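Q: Got a minute? One more chain.
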Amino acid sequence: MTLDCQKCGKPTKVPSSSLKPSGEEAPKISELQRQLKENESQRTEITGYINQLSIQLHRWQLRLQTLNERREKLQAELGSISASNAE
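A: Always. Here it is, folded:
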């Protein structure tokens, strides 16, 4: 099984247990491993969503910056024309 390291985030192979559980422990360990795998799958899915939204946010921020620069340019041009007409 491979999980992301909690410190660095890199995929890290988790060694399988050398002890073979017996009796009541076997189903519990199996269930915990299943839940761990499901949890990791959901974490990966959510991380993907966050990355997609981060990219979209960055695009909107760039668009807003472009519009702000355009507004400043248009206001400067308007001010220049108004000053010329006042003379």
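A: The chain has a mean pLDDT of 89.
Q: Perfect, thanks.
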